[in-house]
Structure prediction request, 356 residues.
Amino acid sequence: MTALAMPPMGNYSIALAASVECLRVTPWTSRSTTPEMMTLGAEAAPEFACLPFKATLGHFIQAAREGVEYGVMVNSVGTCRLRYYRELQQKILKERGLNLHIFGLGYDGIKPPLIRHFDPTPAAFLRCSARAFFKVRAVDRIEEQAWRTRARERHGGDTTRVMDTCLNDLDQARTVGSILAVTRSVRGRFESVPVRTDARPLRVGLLGEASVLRDKYLNHNLEETLGSLGVEVRNFFLLGNEMAKIFHISRWSKDSRRSLMRLARPYLKSVVGGHALESVAYTMACARDGYDGVVHIAPTGCMPEISVRPILRKVSQDLKIPVLELSFDEHSSHVGVVTRLEAFVDILRDRQRSGT
Prediction:
């Protein structure tokens, strides 16, 4: 069967893999970048390219070397350089003699090139779309339970083991009924984890560029590190919300682009690109909702996210919410990241104790 390479998107890779089964292809993907992929991408990419570019390119190079014929990645519009990445990566693959064709997904009419090429039947497309939709919702449920439980667990690692079991079961589910059964079991599984009833976890929002937010290799396992420090995190990149924005669903919800632009307008009055709008708006929402702090994540040199960092500092100052800025490239030190997170959590604890 033909294989299709799909760059890692964290736990959502499970749902994305299910979405292409109707194309009669084997999804070639993983939940996170591997060191080998990162090395391949860093060697082949221009030095100035951002971390997601190098990670995605490394994924495609490894896939091509293993005989995968096709790949797919998202397109973009506006000022983010992602709009050029597919063409650049295709050129690099060709120069290296690798025969892998990359499809762009989105912003090309109602029917993306990938769907036009493989031409699934409407019934098959709807079945896979339904499975993918319910798997996305299941991933959200699993992650929300993990964020809450990990900050309170009595024995380190219990939450991660339960989470991995849930995700593996979800990956194996092939019908909507079995997916819903896994989803219904999630709460009970996490409730079996022994927790400290006297815990007072901090609440921290994770914001920034989507690829690094969702790939635990690229962000040095940020969620688990913070959870082990007694922090209940919330990753604000949710795939369901993102798809609703793309297809203009729920235009009046609090997570719609219209609502986020209205919220961010005092500080951001122009379109920056990428997820910069979300970074500003959700930082303001975190201050409004009583979060203890925000961690803003960006690949080194990412134009949209770097552009709004001065704005985030102003929001932090005005709304009295601490913001930690983390930038990542292939040379980032894990020890350095952990040390900065530990220092940030110490500051938040002091604020919590003093009531400021």
User: Anything to note?
Assistant: The chain is about 55% helix and 10% strand.
